[in-house]
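Marked as duplicate of an earlier ticket. Keeping the data here for the record.
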Amino acid sequence: MKTIKIHPLDNVLVALEDIKTGETIEGVAAVEDIPRGHKIALTDIPEGSEIIKYGCRIGTASGNIKTGSHVHTQNVKTALSENAKYEYDPVSYPLPNVGRKTFMGYRRAKGKVGIRNEIWIIPTVGCVNSIAEKLVRDNQDLVKGSIDGLYTFTHPYGCSQMGDDHATTRKVLAALMHHPNAGGVLVLSLGCENLTDEQMKTELREWNESRVKFLTCQKSDDELADGRKLLEELAEFAGQAQREEIDASELIVGMKCGGSDGLSGITANPTVGRFSDRLIALGGSTVLTEVPEMFGAESILFNRCKDVQTFDKAVRMVDNFKQYFVSHDQVVYENPSPGNKAGGITTLEDKSCGCVQKGGSAPVVDVLEYAEPVTSKGLSLLSGPGNDMVSTTDLTAAGAHMILFTTGRGTPFGAPAPTVKISTNTALFEKKGNWIDFNAGGVADGTETLDEAGDRLLDYVLEVASGRKTRQEESGYREIAIFKDGVTL
């Protein structure tokens, strides 16, 4: 199979392999070379007519397009504007039948569960980043028994911020401190920063003093020795935790894509969507973010909102993000990156229709603010940008135990939570096996169906939840990035 027509209404095919000029595919002769992941016109498309893919408009023809032509940025333009209007037209779809599943995780206080038992050092200000990194390097001997690792998540903030940015930094850091994948947390501050220990403790509200400890470096005669002592205490506490069997209904999984290509919406993203539906059928929770990559495909999600109140929250989330663009004198549709375009994604609508495939077909049960914790079982939408590091930090702060990250181009980075890289094509999986955990390219190769890939991904997720390390974890790639909108003093 060299091409795919995703939806019966589509007027383009997507190439699953490179197509040469003169090749006849589905009765259409290519009039020029069509790279893998790119689109070929099924019929003549007059200037101004809609380009249909996924059964949705992904743009309009900027000139006359002949049958068999390469349909891409040279002859297609976006049809998006900043002033879209939405109406609630609810739809619902049945969830698959899935037998009970469990994983081996860590039972935490107040009913929470974790899939890792790590010790995290959280700097409250960028000035102590190097101290945090040295404490991690010098104290790896504490990683033993049931302790899965010792890590820090450095960042440049915590001082010289005001208003919403200052509040956002507090919110994200507190959420990480509460994350159930951390069996122990050392909060490391300098002592003169804007984000004081008192503010951090107020943001935390409550904590177990055996699990969360504070060190202010300016108050310490030897912060490395004092840090070692506190880490020993945290290791003693965290080391008491042991894995036990936990129902899959307690899992929270974030969903993200990056370095997308023309196969993302055909293989990896709908595979994640099949997984999402299966986990939700088991009583679990999934979280979808990247609001700018919903632009142009919003109604696919909006009409699955469980009620009009949830629909209204979803519309506000999208409209607020559009206003964020407009307030910075940016247009909402300047999104696909050079790598996206090279992979076959033409417009933001094209990208968005592929991105939202990760949300499967389950109802949308909640809409969350940036870094707001997940509290509802099912599919939640989370406000956040498309940037890989910012959005995966957002998902982790919201409580995701792990993140499924689909990619057609490849990327090595990882979030604080285990980050499962899912390739859209087999060639990437074979080339970058040190980055990629799971190959969805078999869907394009014709070796498995989307449902089979979704079943396999569910099993893989449960293995990771039970302790199997991702490629990102094996390499030690972990980082955070906090959303910023205002001035720096």
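See parent ticket for discussion. The chain has three domains: 3-77, 118-242, 248-475.
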